[in-house]
## 1
Amino acid sequence: MPQTHPAIDQATPTTAPPAPPTALSLEERLTFINAAMSVRLDEAKVAYEVNTAHIETEPVDLTDVVTVPLTPTLQPPPASYPTPVAALLQRAHHRLLTGGWCSGALVDEDGARCMLGAIRAEARGDSGLEADAAAVLLDAIRRKFGDVDSVPSFNDAHGSSRVPIRMVDQAAGLADARGL
């Protein structure tokens, strides 16, 4: 006897056909592009590090590189240090920021001052306080730059105000740490 098999109806599919792809929204496309760019930037960063690893470099002192817009004439002077020499150096620092810095003279024709000129102006005739402030400033300079003859020679050796003004500020901190 022949075996009979039930007929399979080929007209009805057993699974539903896949839905046609829908277009991505702008947000989804931007997310994918952001992910792809992040991967490419990471690869470029690694490639740059590999390609430049053999180049010898010296560390950069960011205080000489990073500049921000200074408007010291619009800003009030900072709170004064409690010790007299530190307060004097802090006032001298503020004077250099607001009145300008010069080299080759205590005061130039525009009213800008050198490091010692700013200290002298802020000492207001107190020669002992002026001498103490100049000594602390010279010590701060020597700590950073080695053997320096004097504050005026250090001041005149620079073509811009960045380093001298920064040294007056550091000397104020040093004087405060010493309780002067």
Note: The CA atoms of residues 44 and 171 lie 44 Å apart.
## 2
Amino acid sequence: MIVPDGIRTTDTTLGPRPALLVEPTDGPCAGTILYFHGGAYVCGSPRTALSLTGNLVARTGFRALSLEFPLAPEHPFPSAIEDTLSAYRALLDSGEDPSAIAFAGDSADGGLTVTTCLAVRDAGLPMPAAIVAFSPGLDATRTGESMDSKAGLDPFFTRETLGYTGAMYLAGQDPPQPMLSPAVLADPTGLPPMLLQAGTNELLLDDSTRMAARARAAGVDVVLDITADVPHVFQSFAGVLDEADDALDRAALFLTQHVRTPAMQENP
């Protein structure tokens, strides 16, 4: 993991939860990325995602708040969604304009970018400006064709390992429900523009392809960005893989196109 230059980090809180604030060192920040770190809901932290948050901050000039939330098995579904929704409420309560906030995340917690927006909609709160999800997990039913067609190509996952970690988060809950399997069961109507990035060698590839199709059918602005011959959350290899740097450039462009900074609001 290579963390880019030109950023600074500060431990902080967001609502009741700890968070890591990542900012550019060369000036004030205009927008906010609320980031959900990966780790299958059972591991990981804002520090393990610092290559991703740092690169997004360095490329956009926005600040990122990377949320630390309790993990399974001690804190199973729907704990993570409750914490991310609370973090978003805290941002809004602090006076942050929702049009200046984007959700971003990776792996299982990339799926939280979508399910948190579903919770935002259900709570009657204003939507954030955009979603960016790196290799998101969006189907706890594991019914995507890529779960079998990419077996042996994915260097990180097997159906068995995904089942093991998934069971810790599910804690006996039935996977076929919208907040666990939005790619196959959720109604994404009203969700903000979303960018879904994945690699062709991923077991979870069809989580992104089916979510994109479902969002498109609901009239959501969606970009499905698939890169050949790269693994799960390949963007974390920025500085090593050209494909990772290129994908992060595209993600940063997407964010700057959709997040409305104060200067943009004064000059629409």
Note: The radius of gyration is 17 Å.
## 3
Amino acid sequence: MSEPKIYISVPADYDKPWKEALSLYFEQFLSFFFPEIHSQIDWTVPYRSLEKELMELVGDSDVGTQFADKLFEVKLLNQQTVWILIHVEVQSQTDPAFNQRVYRYNYRAFDKYNQPVVSVAILGDDSPSWRPREYSYSLDGYRLRMEFPTVKLLDYESRWDELELEANPFALMVRAHLKTQATNGKMTERQQWKWILIRSLFEKGYTRDEMVNLFRFVDRMMSLPKELEQQLRTEVIRYQEERQMPFLSPMEELIQEEAREQGRQEGRQEGRQEGRQEGMVEKLRENILQILQIRFGELPPSVLEAVNGVEEMDILNPLFRQAIAIASLAEFQVLLTSVKTSVE
């Protein structure tokens, strides 16, 4: 009996998915984690994301640190304007300077903009005992104290059944965060949990945009070695095909986004438009062949040659969609022949 394969661990990316989720689903964030604050906000008045103001508060000393902090302006039901400063501590280790950072950003915002600021915190570390809730100091009758509400993600481990039933996007974020954390160094187990969470997206009745966004959050956070990631993508494609789901899906969005990103990176490296275009073309051709191999098995040399001979993005994009949806490899070969003829 062969030994199970051991995979090199891939670092998790907590920061970007949390930042993007906060940007897209701020109201749902407050509803899920801080319902009392949520209930006092007039949601008929559009809120504002204050990225520029936050960067001015952070200062040069914190640039590049792994903080998923966000700042929003809201209108309360009593018509008062309030800024809500969200601190998400996403690293696995505790931060002894966290309390001071919460206080520092709060007083900077008040001092610079003369706005009332409410600070809240999400603690994503793996230490059950670390629960910062205030910043204070005193001397000979003088006392300064700032209290702020916090949520500890580890506390949701005992509420897993509730999370599975909850449709709020942050229920999925919490599950992904906890299972990413729990599978550090266990890539095969992480792959299994990633598939469970992705599959749950298809069963929740989310809109297409919600599915694409949530798929992206889970995919980026639960990083896997390339081989395991490819196995997972194969499973997603088969799952959708078996259930005859329309395949303008999270997986297609993700693959096309990867192609665009690779093209952007290569374009920057080459310093010219041609480099960016070539990178996108090459990635898209790889994905077409990959999907055809998953669906129909070994590909004949004529198909490999024909796909690799296509250079135009406006031809490759429809070929990509047909590779996903077409009924047989023979039909795809006919399509390739017509494409080749039209190009020539």
Note: The longest strand covers residues 81-89.
